Amino acid sequence: MERVTVMGFGARIQNRRESLALSRAELAARLGVSPSAIGNYETGISFPKEPVLLRLFDSLHTDPNTLFQDSFRAGGQVLSHTERALLDQYRGLSPMGRETVRSVVEALCAYRDDLEAGKTEAEPRVIPLYRSPAAAGYAAPVFGEDFDYVQVTDDVPQGAEFAVRIQGDSMSPWIEDGSVAYVNHDPLKAGDVGVFCVDGDILCKQYFKDPAGMVYLFSLNRARADADVVLGSGSGRFLACLGRVILHAPPLPGKG
Question: Any residues with CB less than 8 A from the CB of 101 and at least 6 apart, and which?
């Protein structure tokens, strides 16, 4: 990144801070850094790391496009509408949800880097297996931590892109406690089993959306219907599908 790029960003930090009548010490306290670090940001000596940058937007009551508005001419582009929307959604997640997104992005980037390095399908293909334990019925492809690479053999569906370890009985007997669920990014249809992020929690459930926009996430083990999740279209809750579990699932409850 060229120095003029960082300087433009730093000047906007200073202008916004001063317009809010904040001292460097006050802003530093909000960000959890030293006043000298604020000075370095404003003069272009250094650039905030991602967690500090997100707190900076909140503390200055501003958005990325305002601070970056003529920046990144050498190394990139001003954020597009789509990129800004994604960043706003990311910022609205819980810390657990943010780590989930980061771990998925890192896995995709690693796969991209492997392709660019010239690795071929003739080499053994591997996928990440996330092994973090979670509450009953929960999956765990999360938190930027604890995963192993497993080789795609004849026992692994060839379409699998990652795998998650399931703990609990809410999806048995189709997905037993402690077993591995293989996941891809195919579009999800009614009755499919998916891995979902709901308000930062990671769930493995059977999916259904009715014509009114209500989303139902069912436990396959109907003795554990208490673990079902229902989300209304105007509930304000966060829902994202991280992938479709490769599984021949039973009919939806009440539709068999």
Answer: 90, 93
Strands 239-245 and 162-165: unpaired
| C-alpha to C-alpha distance for 7 and 167, rounded to whole angstroms | 50
Name the CATH superfamily, with its identifier, for domain 3-91.
lambda repressor-like DNA-binding domains (1.10.260.40)
By the 10 Å C-beta count (0-12 exposed, 13-18 middle, 19+ buried), 102 is classed as: middle
Structure confidence by residue, pLDDT tens digits, 2-39: 333 334 677 888 888 888 899 999 999 988 888 888 98
Architecture of domain 95-245 in this structure:
Ribbon (2.10)
Residues in the chain: 256
Q: Where are the domains positioned within the chain? A: 3-91, 95-245
User: pLDDT tens, 145-154?
Assistant: 567 788 888 8
